[in-house]
Write a structure and sequence with these properties.
By secondary structure, the chain is of the alpha/beta class. The chain is built from 11 helices and 11 strands. It has helices spanning 20-28, 34-45, 93-105, 114-122, 212-221, 223-228, 235-250, 255-261, 265-268, 270-273, 275-288; strands at 11-16, 50-55, 74-77, 108-112, 126-129, 135-144, 160-167, 169-173, 180-183, 191-196, 199-204. A 9-stranded mixed beta sheet has the order 2-1-3-4-11-10-9-6-7, sandwiched between helices. Strands 5-8 form a two-stranded antiparallel ribbon. Helix 3 (93-105) links the parallel strand 3 (74-77) and strand 4 (108-112). Helix 3 (93-105) crosses helix 4 (114-122) and helix 5 (212-221) runs antiparallel to helix 7. It is globular. 44% of the residues are buried.
């Protein structure tokens, strides 16, 4: 056991970016809800914090009654299966509006996957479908850039690492003046801090909040797509791979499973995997005094 990152009584708003139909499909498919992954992290690393969840893709979206942006120490954005450049989609437009409002208010945000795409789009960058197709399961050989050496976001992260991932779109151009912090050969933009005045949106294309068990559940639910896109010969093969992930989650010291899945401590050990999230909590501490 290690000490929590912060004991401050921060108040966080977790922004679930999936539409209702997708959340219902998560329940039918035995997939963990992404807001729960962040709540689990906060329970361990910020035990005195409180969290409130909002569903920004829903037609009746609003911040919790009686609250305003300034009432929260930070906003945490989940992934999504929407398309951020479909700005006329009524499930996307409110997310763009909220991200812009947070930027104007000087708020602090964290965003995984959809988060880096949303923040980039809002701040003047570009997002498109990746011509290489889906990056799924584990993103390989993510490399820190020179700019990452002085970034508090990546402090303590290995120079090269693997991370959980699942996406089809990617950032093709970061907003002007935004340094690239991490990259790999599949998706050149893997991490960035997008700033505007006092506002700071820490973001990654990969998912530091996931673990082997949860990624196994997500891969099993994506079986039809993974077969259709040529990653597996059939759904039975997907089920076997997903089960191996869950097995390794339950037996993290298994050399056989580590070798079979080609994973190391950067995937298994939360002290490495969640480095960026713990650094974000320290950043929140520094903003709130």
């Amino acid at each position: 056991m290690t000490s929590p990152t912060t004991t401050a009584p921060h108040r966080f708003c977790i922004v679930n970016c999936y539409p209702a139909a997708s959340r219902e499909n998560f329940d039918r498919s035995d997939v963990g809800h992404p807001h729960d992954l962040f709540r689990d992290f906060l329970r361990r690393e910020a035990p005195n914090a409180t969290t409130e969840i909002v569903y920004v893709a829903d037609p009746d979206f609003a911040l919790p009654p009686g609250t305003a942006i300034d009432d929260f120490a930070g906003f945490i954005w989940t992934g999504s299966d929407l398309t951020v450049y479909h700005t006329d989609d009524p499930r996307v437009a409110p997310q763009i509006d909220l991200a812009r409002a947070l930027m104007r208010a000087g708020a602090a945000s964290w965003g995984s996957c959809w988060g880096i795409q949303l923040a980039s789009q809002v701040a003047g960058g570009e997002v498109a479908v990746n011509p290489r197709g889906r990056e799924w399961g584990i993103a390989r050989d993510i490399r820190l850039t020179d700019a990452a050496r002085t970034s508090p976001m990546l402090e303590g992260k290995p120079a090269v690492f693997d991370a959980f991932i699942m996406h089809l779109d990617y950032v093709t151009r970061l907003p002007e003046g935004t340094p690239l912090l991490a990259t790999n050969d599949f998706s050149p933009v893997q991490a960035a801090v997008i700033e505007d005045g006092a506002a700071a949106f820490w973001s990654t294309q990969y998912h530091p909040e996931y673990n082997l068990h949860e990624m196994g559940r997500l891969i099993a639910a994506r079986a039809k797509a993974l077969v259709r896109e040529g990653f597996f010969p059939d759904e039975a093969a997907v089920a076997i791979y997903a089960a191996r992930m869950k097995d390794l989650a339950a037996n993290p010291d298994s050399a056989e499973l580590r070798a079979e899945l080609d994973v190391g401590d950067d995937i298994i050990d939360p002290r490495i995997r969640e480095t960026e999230l713990r650094n974000w909590l320290r950043f929140i501490d520094s903003r709130t005094g």
